[in-house]
Amino acid sequence: MPSVTVVLGTRPEAIKLAPVILAARASPSMAVTVCNTGQHADMTAGILSLFGIVPDIDLAVMKPNQSLTDITGAVLRTLEPVLGERRPDWLIVQGDTTSAFAAALAAFYARTPVAHVEAGLRTGDIHAPWPEEMNRLLITDIARLHFAPLESNAANLQREGVPPARIVVTGNTGIDALKWIIGRLAADKRLAESAQRALDATKVDALRAGAGAQIVLITGHRRESFGEGFRNICAALAELARRFPERHFIYPVHPNPEVRDTVQRELGGMLANLHLIEPLDYLPFVLLMTRAELILTDSGGIQEEAPSIGKRVIVLRQITERTEGVETGLIRLAGTDRARIVADAAAAFEGRWPPKPEGSDVYGDGRAAERIVAALAAVSRT
Length: 382
Ligand code: UD1
Ligand code: UDP
What we know:
The protein contains 15 helices and 13 strands. By secondary structure, it is of the alpha/beta class. The relative contact order is 0.13.
């Protein structure tokens, strides 16, 4: 029976690995250990409990305001004894965070094979997203098995010399999670009520059930935008909130102090229809996405989720590794340019950028985790 250790640390890793953990646990031929690095101690607990996952190991690396070096060193140091003791057949990491990269490196030192979920995403610019593009490249060099969400990601890997036999195209596991939650929100009244209660707890009247408000949802946290980029984004949001006073702009602010301080300084208490709130748990966040008229974000995961539910997105980045969404017509790249952000949002509000309520499965059909577990089981048999 192959043993797999799944390492996660941040919010997107918890969301995107939850379906993989559940599918692996459901497989009679796999022994699964879940290891939380604790990089996002505050933001992963609710997600894991929503999916009924209790980590077996908590590396507890989070310290306020820590540097990338701090996280890398702490994960390397704390994971080493875990791998030495458990000796798993596979270590699974997801995406491009510091937790994922450091865990892959720790596995390399321990001579544990690495399987990489969400492999092959590339912008071609090692500074954007920073440091994630470099983390992706380094994890690819280490990994033995590469789960590419889309054909384009597999093609990137092949161009870099990864043998095709080591690549499996799976779809995005984040879409598995999203479809599962949307299905449960529709089928489970009590779960839907608890999501609404979490929105009520924000004390924003526009988020109350039946308020019928027009909602614009915003997230932003990319390190390469810190400084001028973030100030431009804030200026665009203030301009939009003034120009469209009947709409409510809801911004769950990422806990990174650099983000918090800038957003609070530039936008705090400024306009009655611009609401800065705490990060939302995944369940109420999904409910809010389904209600949103438009989403402005620099998040990778939200760029994948929004097309799946037919939502238009303005991407607050100069460059994206998720180009398929742009081709659906639901995603526009505005960068951190104030005028472009305002122009694209105005186009959406004024009917010059029509919605597509039918959505698109371009990022996945909800069965990625199943494919990953089947491929791991097959490769472990050979
Ligand atoms: C990290 C990932 C990024 C991912 C993002 C998702 C890296 C290098 N970056 O960025 O790829 O897109 O997560 O959100 O791995 N903090 C808390 N509580 C939390 C989480 C963070 O207080 O639950 C604060 C801490 O002060 C922490 C800071 O935010 O030091 C930054 O967190 P960190 O994980 O270093 O980077 P992110 O910007 O969140
Ligand atoms: N998300 C959430 N609450 C929030 C903001 C985002 O649950 O307040 C979810 C969102 O649905 C997506 C994921 O978190 O699945 C994206 O995480 P993030 O933007 O932190 O990271 P990225 O995708 O950029 O790596």
